Amino acid sequence: MLKIEYMVTDQRDLDLVGPLWEKLNEHHRAHSPHHARYFARMTFDLRKKELLEKSSNGTMRIDLAKDGNTEAIVGYCISTVSEKKQGEIESIFIEKDYRLHGIGDNFMKKALAWMDCRAVTKRVIAVVIGNEEAFTFYSRHNFYPRVTILQNDITT
Question: What pTM value is reported for the model?
Answer without folding.
Answer: 0.91
